[in-house]
Structures are given as structure tokens and as C-alpha cells.
Write a structure and sequence with these properties.
Phosphatase 2c, domain 1; six-stranded antiparallel β-sheet; 15 strands; 2 domains; EC 3.1.3.16; PP2C; protein serine/threonine phosphatase activity; five-stranded antiparallel β-sheet; manganese; 400 residues; 36% helix; alpha+beta; PPM-type-like_dom_sf
Length: 400
């Protein structure tokens, strides 16, 4: 990202005004390196002024600390401006891959949706000049019927019947309405399962969706599927596992009269799911088991490298950071999200997961191809010593 000379000049003026010191006649200049790292250069003080070290140990130390904090504050302000500018200019380069495996189970109850170009699928229902994509994973229990039903009807539930905001400007109001439409879609799917004769009331599914609009990411989750964003190599959880062991969920369940025994809500290991109407009170009533999702939104920047979306068969045996590190190494080797998804599943199987496995890897930017060279060891120079030199060395070593 390039910062204009005007921006740097303005920053210099701000800093100089903030840092005006009668004791030290110093100028602070903020510059941006090629790697986008901010740095503060301090010019040498005039010969008549005391050195920086002398001032720091003088009686004015508290004043100097205050002035130093002003420098930090100024730097943080410019850092924030640079990050916001980076977010505005960043446009994700979306490319995804997925992989599934039945694992140790007798049947495959997972389903997933993988759409790199949403506009091509929903057409006039969703008009956006920006890159758009939609992903989802569904982990069924009590049979595959609930997960299969939600997958088949996902486009209708999430885009046709969900009251998508029809605004030209993608501002804060737009994204608040978009979040509400996703919440409504989850509840509509839950209600549809209650009336669907092909799906037993003993059957249900967890659900996680991820919608990308330009540089905006929205993740909605009900259950223990998980979405993890890689930001400069660090795992950032975009969802919370809704398990009885998660204290806020346990409290919510117990306040509604639910009973948790040995980590299970009745016979379920999750506290939120679509379907499972044998455990829910009639429509309109508050049940311990709910379908309402948690929703998280984030503005993507060039620091965001990829997104991992997976069912709990992955997360039962590896942490978010473990998965991110594995995928990051893979993308830097071959830049293939599909192969990364296969490698994640293979690793989960190696770690003895006992569940079905489904994972989607969404690459948001091309990985760095810079090969880091390991520091060279100092070379040893082998030379021969004369007999006289060896004799003198021997005398020195023996203390003579």
C-alpha cells in the first residue's frame, strides 16, 4: 500500500506540534517503509542541548514520559489510518477447495455448500459488483435427512425468502440488515424442518454459513462447526462452538429449565441446532435447544490470508491454530486450497478423529512465495600449523 506524501507531511506536522519541547529541539519524522512498517526517526539534537539519555534521568523524567507517550499515540493514529486505507483498497482473490470423508462412522451425515461466485448462482436476487461468495457446512445427527434438506433449500432459505437488504450503499445499515436476514434464514430453516414430513423429529443438524461481499465477511453459526480466519499466520476464530461445556451456553440452557448431564443436553453434544423437534417446545416458545445463530462480521484486509470452515470432526482433534499453520504451509508450497483441504482431513484421520469429516479452505489472497533462507553457519577455515607453532601452542595450553 502507498501512503501519499501529503499524508506523511500532515503526520509530521501533527507530531511536531504534539512533541514541541523547550528542553529538546528535536524533530520527529514519520515515514513508511516499503514493507509498510511505520518508523519514527529522531534527528540529532543541537550541541547545546543535553542528550536524550541525560534528559531521561533528570528531574523532568515524568515530562519526558508524557512526551514519549505522545509519540506513541501519534504513531498508533497513523497505524490505524494505514490499516483502514489498506482495508478499503483490499479486494479478496477468492478461490476455494473442499474435502470430505466418512471417517469412523457407518454413514455420512455431513453436507456442505461451496460457491466462489455467488452472483452467478442467484443472479438478480443478489446484485453486487464486488466479488461475492457463499459457503456452508451442515453436520447432521439422528440421520442425514435434516442436513440434506437444508442444503437442498439453502438458496431459497438464505437468498430468496430471507429479505435481503436492497440498498445501493453497503454501509453500516446494510450490513445490520444483512445480519438480521441471516438470523431469519436460520430460524426459517428450523421451522421448515418442523413441518417437513420427510425429516424425522428425531433428526437435526448444526449449521455454519460464511458470506463474502467484497472485503466484508459475515459468519453465522448454530452448533459446533467452526470458521477460522488466518490473519498474518494467526488463527482468529469467527465462530463459537455451542457446546454444553461452554459456560455462557450452559447458563442459558439451565435458565430455560434444560438439564446438562456429563456434557450433553439430553442426548445432544450441542446446545444449538436446526431440527431436533422432539427436544423443542412448540413454535413460539423458548426452548433450551435453539436454532438462533451467533453472527460475527469483519472487514477483510491484506493481512487476511484464508478462511477454514469445518465440521467438528476436524476440531475434535486439532486446535484452530494447528489447522491454520498446516494450511498456511500447504498454500505456500503449492497454492492449492483443494489439496490443503485433503491434507487437513488426512491429518484429522491420523489424529484418530471418530466423526465424519468435512472442511472448506477459502483462499483470500495469493500466498507469499518468498523463500526464507536460513542463516549461513560461519565457515571453518582449516589450516596447518608448523612444528614450532604447535610447540608454542602446547606450551601455552600446559601453562608453561
Amino acid at each position: 500500500m502507498i501512503v501519499s506524501e501529503k499524508m506523511v507531511a500532515e503526520a509530521e506536522v501533527i507530531c511536531q506540534k504534539t512533541m514541541a519541547m523547550p528542553v529538546l529541539d528535536m524533530k520527529y519524522r514519520v515515514c513508511v517503509s516499503k514493507e509498510h512498517n511505520l518508523q519514527i526517526d529522531v534527528a540529532s539534537p543541537p550541541s547545546s542541548a543535553p542528550s536524550f539519555g541525560e534528559v531521561c534521568v533528570s528531574e523532568t523524567i515524568s515530562t519526558e514520559i508524557s512526551r514519549f507517550e505522545s509519540v506513541v499515540s501519534c504513531t498508533e493514529t497513523i497505524n490505524k489510518a494505514v490499516m483502514e486505507s489498506s482495508a478499503i483498497k483490499f479486494v479478496p482473490d477468492i478461490h476455494s477447495g473442499s474435502h470430505t470423508d466418512i471417517g469412523a462412522r457407518d454413514s455420512m451425515d455431513d453436507e456442505h455448500i461451496q460457491i466462489d461466485d455467488l452472483s452467478a448462482h442467484v443472479g438478480p436476487l443478489f446484485k453486487s459488483p464486488l466479488p461475492s461468495a457463499f459457503y456452508a457446512v451442515f453436520d447432521g445427527h439422528g440421520g442425514p435427512e435434516a442436513a440434506s434438506y437444508v442444503k437442498r433449500n439453502a438458496m431459497k432459505l438464505f437468498f430468496e425468502d430471507a429479505d435481503l437488504p436492497q440498498r445501493k450503499d453497503m454501509d453500516a445499515v446494510f450490513f445490520r440488515e444483512l445480519e438480521n436476514s441471516h438470523r431469519k434464514a436460520f430460524l426459517q430453516a428450523d421451522h421448515a424442518l418442523a413441518h417437513e414430513h420427510s425429516v424425522s423429529s428425531l433428526c437435526g443438524t448444526t449449521a455454519l454459513t460464511a458470506l463474502i461481499l467484497g472485503r466484508h465477511l459475515l459468519v453465522a453459526n448454530a452448533g459446533d462447526c467452526r470458521a477460522v480466519l488466518c490473519r498474518n499466520g494467526v488463527a482468529v476464530d469467527m465462530s463459537q462452538d455451542h457446546k454444553p461445556t461452554y459456560l455462557p451456553e450452559r447458563r442459558r440452557v439451565e435458565q430455560l429449565g434444560g438439564h446438562i448431564d456429563d456434557g450433553y443436553l439430553n442426548d445432544l453434544s450441542v446446545t444449538r441446532a436446526l431440527g431436533d423437534w422432539y427436544l423443542k417446545l412448540p413454535l413460539g416458545s423458548s426452548s433450551p435447544l435453539i436454532a438462533e445463530p451467533d453472527v460475527q462480521q469483519v472487514m477483510l484486509t491484506e493481512d487476511d490470508e484464508f478462511l477454514i470452515i469445518g465440521c467438528d470432526g476436524i476440531w475434535d482433534v486439532m486446535s484452530s491454530q494447528y489447522a491454520v499453520s498446516l494450511v498456511r504451509r500447504g498454500l505456500r508450497r503449492h497454492d492449492d486450497p483443494q489439496q490443503c483441504a485433503r491434507e487437513l482431513v488426512k491429518e484429522a484421520l491420523r489424529l484418530n478423529t471418530t466423526d465424519n469429516l468435512t472442511v472448506i479452505v477459502v483462499r483470500l489472497s495469493s500466498p507469499s512465495r518468498v523463500v526464507e533462507c536460513s542463516p549461513q553457519r560461519p565457515r571453518l577455515r582449516i589450516c596447518s600449523l608448523s612444528e614450532e607453532a604447535r610447540s608454542r601452542l602446547r606450551s601455552l595450553l600446559e601453562g608453561n
